[in-house]
């Protein structure tokens, strides 16, 4: 039940808007990813600060999604994928053989490109995570968790009368917020978002972006996005990936106004991508 | 004039038509292919089809109509008295047998054609004379039957002659018509293609005809059965004891019970094993294991059912007797013979494993990867993902697969004929021999029973029941599976 | 490792953190359940494979014996007087049997084996068909009369079974056919090399035999029956199946008739095979008066049964030909019919053939419909005399023959039934391999 209380306490403790990078939540050093013979990620070093939003940008196939999926070991599900180097979450190596990926993923949640609600009711969609992780002692607990998660995801008002309706019946934007609520319900510390708005219309996108901004107070968020505007709007720090390399990383403002690397410059001015 | 001669004549006419049609069309264009509307061969094909199609249609109609006409003509010669003694059908089959016998005698040279049409029972013992040429007749031939048989032969031979004339006439007419039309402006290709299209359509319609044939042959004989045996006794009777001497009790309930019992055992073997195998192979197994285990399991599906039947009768049955029979492994005397509900059900279960597993495999693979990612991303273990996300999502499809497997189990014949036993019984003990609907269809129709007796006709009523039940299951399953697929497409 | 020491400074002070490196109790439980679930999966696959192994083992261990046969070598003096007397007698075989017995006794005497057995007992050693074998030889080779010819007579099924180890000595003691003296005699004969065991060509190529002579029963005639049946299936289902598929795939308009055809095809594919047998009985035999037990009728029934399978696979191969091929043909001015028959069909042909072969293999192993049209219960003791006879004369088929043997009272026929299954499976395997090779060789990736 620790995670639950943590959420509330973190909410009241009030973090500064831009987290100082003194104590990073996630530290990655010399990360290499191979798909069979394909060297997809080369020597990536990055610090991800807690309670802030970091965005990964870069052209298609640059490895940003692959790197994101390393952070909660989703790549484990792909047979040919191999990860080298070190990724630490709160100073613990997540690729340590003693680490159970199931426990890791409870701490590092994920939201996917296409909204993927389960073919169950809205309530059951959100309750699924807490149930498998044994977070609720009884029915009332569970209801509280679900309602809180839906509220945090800004969806509760829209669905409170039809919690038993199938999650697949919601609109695309609502589905994506349901998926975010589903991820929040497990009380993760980090939420990974893989292009969460690419399948949504502009209004739904605006809502999700607003939500991301609110969630920042309590969670560390890493978002992969195709849209540089989105990265500029929601993130405090930005990392630019190109051909499997992390080219440049820094405060979002700096990256967009004053990039150091020629490749970053070319990309944000639209010369390739 | 035999059928093959007519067919050969028609074929020859078609070839002639091809050559004539082609050459006349070419001739009309002065030998220049460019001036023809279609390629020369189309004119040839046009003529050949014109010869064959009308004449063959006439021939088919003739083959259906002629026996009916003969039957009516000859039936009018049979006196009321002899119909009352047995039945018109029996007398008519006697007549046919005598007529065939006379044919055989003439062919064998034991009689001249004249003799065959003029002998009289008053002067000759027809039965003996036919017996000499190897035609066995059950009863003595009376004069009425003999005369009817002779009349039968007369009409049949006139009919055959007429048939030849009419059919070949149609062929010639078609040839002449096509020949006249074979001119360079004639759109031969369009005509030929239209005809080919009709041929394609009729090939596709054979599926409808087959269903129609099944339904009609079942319905007519079932109605016939219910005329001699009350339908209520058939559907609700608790005893099945046919006796060919009459006084049979033909209640379907014990047969249905055994059918369902065996199918239930089969499914309780096949569904868990098949489903778990499918889950393992599609969710866990690496490519090497999968590429070995999947085809191996599918070998089980390619083995003919007779093999499973023998396996049940000679291997599994005796093993079960060793375990449960008197003086067996468990020291209990629960099983008398190798045939039992368990024997048949267990072996049928083995047969159905690949059926369940490959259908479930398809269905599990149709669940989008995004579902798995979503669940794994929340920190679910693989088995939690399978149990709580994939299986519920795939449930309709899996239910459909199980229904299809159930329909297979209910309709399976060889395993139960060999492995289940022959005595109909209403019992709960799975180690007892019982018999099923399909097994009884076989035994009622392979005996020497007269096709008009209720003991033989009941097989059609059983077949009808089987057909309806499996049809409903199939339609339900196909509907469910289709709906399921649409959901993810 | 306590949780607090590893806590992030960013979290609240009261925040108790769980370490990733320590697996908590719930996760342990969940992982155990994961391992259990996986074990169920593995065991399901293993159980399935074990069933396959058990089945194959049962087939091979019981059936391989049928491919060897024990023969008894007996030099018989073809005495002219004795043969003439036999030919004049009414029960010719018993006289011929006496001739064999004389030779047999002499041979045993020569080998120094002493039997106190009477003729009747001695006869049980050999197939009751031995006399017929001798008579046929004499009638075919009249010039051999007067000489001594060494025959290899088929041993009776029990002698054969005893030598193959199929029947145990203890079981045979209670058998009314053989007693301990016979078994001693067999052992002695084996020592004296009077019995030989060779490959059983008669089983593979011969015809079926009556109930009392399991040692002479063979699959040959039923193989011919199956061959003619498959010929009918091939000649009908391939053209009809291809024509129907072309119509449905390329021409059929969207209307009720097309829907009706589609629904019918998918339902027919799932109708129990015994129902097709009823159809065959009612339509082909009762209504159309085609001969019972004829391969032609069997072939017609199996054609109707395999058509849906063939249509489904043919449509799949037609669908696999990309539309660009059709467009290309239409673009140079071919009619739709020409584009299909000249371009699409040849490209789809390997796939169609593969599907057809698999359909044929299915039909070859099908038994239930054949029972109803009279292909069981008929003893296929003769080969058909010509092609016409092959289609129309009563015959059996491989699976029907196996069923026939499985039903007979004498357990010696069971070995034949298992052996028949081996032959049947060899054919099925060959057909499937052919299909796989065809697919591999001609498979095209677009």
From TrEMBL, chain A:
Record-stated family: Belongs to the ABC transporter superfamily.
Matches recorded under SMART domains: AAA
Cross-referenced SUPFAM superfamilies: P-loop containing nucleoside triphosphate hydrolases
Domain (ABC transporter): residue spans on this chain: 22-268
PROSITE patterns, per the entry: ABC_TRANSPORTER_1, ABC_TRANSPORTER_2
The protein's name: Phosphate ABC transporter ATP-binding protein
GO cellular component, one term: membrane
A Pfam family: ABC_tran
Origin superkingdom: Bacteria
GO biological process: phosphate ion transmembrane transport
Leader peptide range in chain numbering: none
InterPro entries: AAA+_ATPase, ABC_transporter-like_ATP-bd, ABC_transporter-like_CS, P-loop_NTPase, PstB-like
Organism: Rhodobium orientis
Gene Ontology terms, MF aspect: ATP binding; ATP hydrolysis activity; phosphate transmembrane transporter activity
Automatic annotation (TrEMBL), chain B:
Domain ABC transmembrane type-1, chain residue ranges per copy: 256-477
Sequence intervals crossing the membrane: 45-65, 160-179, 199-219, 255-279, 299-321, 341-368, 389-410, 456-481
Gene Ontology annotations of biological process type: phosphate ion transport
Chief location: membrane
Top-rank lineage group of the source organism: Bacteria
Gene3D superfamilies: MetI-like
Gene Ontology MF: a single term: phosphate transmembrane transporter activity
Cellular compartments per GO CC: plasma membrane
Membrane topology: Multi-pass membrane protein
Keyword Transmembrane found: yes
Keyword field contains Cell membrane: yes
Cellular localization per UniProt: Cell inner membrane; Cell membrane
CDD domains: TM_PBP2
Pfam families cross-referenced by the UniProt entry: BPD_transp_1, DUF3708
Keywords on record: Cell inner membrane, Cell membrane, Membrane, Phosphate transport, Transmembrane, Transmembrane helix, Transport
Protein purpose: Part of the binding-protein-dependent transport system for phosphate; probably responsible for the translocation of the substrate across the membrane.
Family the entry assigns: Belongs to the binding-protein-dependent transport system permease family. CysTW subfamily.
Protein name stated in the entry: Phosphate transport system permease protein
TrEMBL record, chain C:
Keywords: Cell membrane, Membrane, Transmembrane, Transmembrane helix, Transport
One GO-annotated biological process of the protein: phosphate ion transmembrane transport
Gene Ontology MF: a single term: phosphate transmembrane transporter activity
Family named by the database record: Belongs to the binding-protein-dependent transport system permease family. CysTW subfamily.
Organism of provenance: Rhodobium orientis
Membrane topology: Multi-pass membrane protein
Cross-referenced Pfam families: BPD_transp_1, DUF3333
Family matches, as SUPFAM superfamilies: MetI-like (SSF161098)
Residues passing through the membrane, by range: 39-60, 227-248, 268-287, 294-314, 340-361, 417-438
Domain of life per record: Bacteria
Location of the ABC transmembrane type-1 domain: 223-435
GO cellular component: plasma membrane
Protein name: Phosphate transport system permease protein PstA
Major localization class: membrane
Subcellular location per the Swiss-Prot or TrEMBL entry: Cell inner membrane; Cell membrane
